[in-house]
Design brief:
The chain is α+β, with helices and mostly antiparallel strands. It has one domain (about 5-120): 3-Layer(aba) Sandwich (Trna Endonuclease, Chain: A, domain 1), CATH 3.40.1350. About 35% of the residues lie in helices and about 35% in strands. It has helices spanning about 5-25, 65-70, 75-90; strands spanning about 30-40, 40-50, 50-60, 95-105, 110-120. Strands 1-2-3-4-5 form a five-stranded mixed sheet. The protein is globular, with a radius of gyration of 14 Å. The termini are far apart.
Length: about 120
Amino acid sequence: MSRETRLRAGLFGRRAEQLAILFLRSKGYRILAHTYIVRGGEIDIIVRRGSAVAFVEVKARPSLEGALIAITPAKQRRMSIAARHWLSTNQWAMRCSLRGDLIAVAPWRMPRHVVGAVELHLD
């Protein structure tokens, strides 16, 4: 992959995350963290609405269908590592309902929010 292609893909991904934040806010979610990175793990967005805390992965692909199937077992592990770390420093969230969500983004389409799409291992 050329440098230009990587840069374009990175920009597409960052724009998708910003769109996802706006989309989640419009649905009444409060953003708790964005681009949460720890050794061995990363979560794109952490949100709260009511008694639920969601660890959200944003996938931007040429089609919504492609984005919906883009969560790999390795990505689930990285999200779980980061979620456990975040929870260790935000103990209050342990009283909430916890889940892994997906926001699928494709050009010229409304983002799709799939609640509970990502199986997290938090124990």
